[in-house]
């Protein structure tokens, strides 16, 4: 009998408590051969698998735990197009040709998400009410308005907000202005991941939970994945899509990014009188600070507040106390409201704050590093990765890069602590 490695249970969270049921994904019990094997059943892996299946490619996805177990099932559920850099900066960095390609991909990322949801009838509380980026700093307001105008020039539906308008939209007087990007929206992120898995399996993709990839071996013009369970997978092409939960499967990969914890709290469903005053239009929001806060309402009227937290795994409710204080500073009316859920997940932060695609060996592709915009960017990159793996694309929208481990990566806890202190100072001085 084959040994089945025990997977970790899905951590408690609002999303785990309210998600659509998971589709059955039994552990891999027998060796198999496929066209493409994917390691990691998060948004990148699932979107790529679904798009490959639509191209008639035989695909197998394996995950050490279960679909959506990592950050794909634990994030804030904000579907935001674009990247961390403004269009003008991306054009400067990549030049006219590559810059245009990247902007087309990033600008249409939310369209890809909501298009998949509609086409495959994914039940995930999808709402496309827009994203608000507010600022507390009058110095930064012109920068945000310039950002909005750059996207508007590219066809995005945006709106500039002054102090009165931002106060009305958010229900707090903490900000001096901002902008709205109407391309954006929200989903129940674990339901969305499970919906992608269900749609992919309906088209013939095999997905196996509790199946950890232990070793990659080049073999006979392709690859063999050795799993901790014992069975192997032979494939012409392999995609590694483990993002913030990458391990030693490929040399240097885990050391090429910082796997930072993102912490979230959620209140109980807000009473009607309080709820009416907080994000009445149900947009999602994340502010302009380097140590940003992101917040939204869920389908049942809870308020979610997210942000950075300790690098280590959480130990108790005190690890989320800074978010609860921040929520009450923004919304004093929450003083007597109880918090129902607290959870965290690891996102991959790259040195240049851009997603990375690596092609370290023939037939092997690696993608990671969405820097907090994983729902939109991982989903849309999956579409492009599928075309690349199927051989139907002229190239990738992101120029492939080499894997470059961060110097002294073992000290990343120090990096993050120092960075938090430094960015906190810069935010205070802005």
Would you spell out the secondary-structure blueprint of this structure?
Layout: H1 14-18, E1 32-39, H2 43-54, E2 59-62, E3 78-79, H3 87-107, H4 109-119, E4 131-135, H5 138-153, E5 158-161, H6 163-170, E6 177-181, E7 185-186, H7 189-202, E8 206-208, E9 213-219, E10 222-227, E11 232-240, E12 258-267, H8 272-275, E13 284-286, E14 294-297, E15 303-308, H9 321-330, E16 339-349, E17 356-361, E18 364-368, H10 374-390, H11 412-429
Parallel strand pairs: 1-2, 1-11, 2-8, 4-13, 11-18
Antiparallel strand pairs: 3-7, 4-6, 5-6, 9-10, 10-11, 12-15, 12-16, 13-14, 14-15, 17-18
Domain FAD dependent oxidoreductase: 35-387
Organism: Paraburkholderia lacunae
Protein name: FAD-dependent oxidoreductase
Question: Explain this structure to me?
Answer:
- This protein is of the alpha/beta class and 430 residues long.
- It folds into 2 domains: 1-125 and 187-258 and 348-430, FAD/NAD(P)-binding domain, CATH 3.50.50; 126-186 and 259-347, D-Amino Acid Oxidase, Chain A, domain 2.
- The protein contains 11 helices and 18 strands.
- The protein is globular, with a radius of gyration of 21 Å.
- This is FAD-dependent oxidoreductase.
């Amino acid at each position: 009998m084959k040994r089945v490695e025990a997977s970790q249970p899905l951590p408690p969270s609002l999303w785990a408590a309210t998600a659509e049921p998971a589709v059955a994904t039994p552990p891999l019990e027998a060796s198999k051969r496929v066209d493409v094997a994917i390691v990691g059943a998060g948004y990148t892996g699932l979107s790529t698998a679904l798009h490959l299946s639509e191209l008639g490619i035989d695909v197998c996805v394996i995950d050490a735990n279960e679909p959506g177990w990592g950050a794909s099932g634990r994030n804030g559920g904000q579907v935001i197009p674009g990247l961390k850099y403004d269009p003008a900066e991306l054009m400067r960095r990549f030049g006219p040709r590559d810059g245009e390609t990247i902007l087309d991909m990033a600008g249409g990322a939310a369209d890809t998400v909501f298009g998949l949801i509609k086409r495959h009838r994914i039940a995930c509380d999808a709402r496309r009410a827009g994203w608000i980026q507010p600022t507390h700093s009058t110095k930064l307001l012109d920068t945000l308005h310039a950002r909005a105008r750059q996207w508007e020039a590219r066809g995005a539906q945006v709106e500039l907000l002054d102090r009165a308008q931002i106060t009305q939209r958010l229900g707090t007087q903490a900000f001096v202005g901002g902008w709205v990007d109407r391309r954006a929206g929200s989903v129940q992120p674990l339901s969305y991941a499970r919906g992608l898995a269900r749609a992919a399996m309906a088209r013939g993709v095999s997905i196996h939970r509790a199946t950890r990839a232990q070793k990659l071996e080049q073999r006979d013009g392709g690859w063999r994945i050795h799993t901790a369970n014992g069975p192997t997978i032979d494939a012409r092409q392999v995609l590694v899509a483990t993002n913030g939960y990458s391990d030693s499967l490929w040399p240097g990969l885990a050391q090429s990014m910082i796997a930072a914890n993102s912490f979230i709290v959620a209140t109980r469903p807000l009473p009607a009188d309080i709820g009416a005053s907080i994000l009445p239009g149900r947009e999602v929001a994340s502010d302009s600070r380097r140590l940003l806060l992101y917040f939204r309402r869920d389908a049942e009227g809870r308020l979610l507040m997210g942000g950075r937290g300790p690098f280590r795994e959480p130990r108790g409710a005190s690890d989320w106390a800074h978010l609860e204080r921040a929520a009450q500073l923004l919304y004093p009316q929450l003083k007597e409201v109880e918090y129902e859920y607290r959870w965290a997940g690891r996102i991959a932060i790259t040195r240049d704050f851009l997603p990375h695609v690596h092609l370290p060996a023939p037939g092997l592709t690696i993608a990671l590093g969405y820097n907090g915009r994983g729902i939109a960017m991982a989903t849309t990159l999956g579409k492009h990765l599928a075309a690349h793996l199927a051989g139907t694309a002229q190239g990738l929208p992101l120029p492939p890069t080499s894997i470059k481990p961060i110097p002294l990566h073992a000290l990343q806890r120090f990096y993050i602590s120092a960075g938090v202190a430094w960015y906190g100072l810069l935010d205070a001085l802005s």
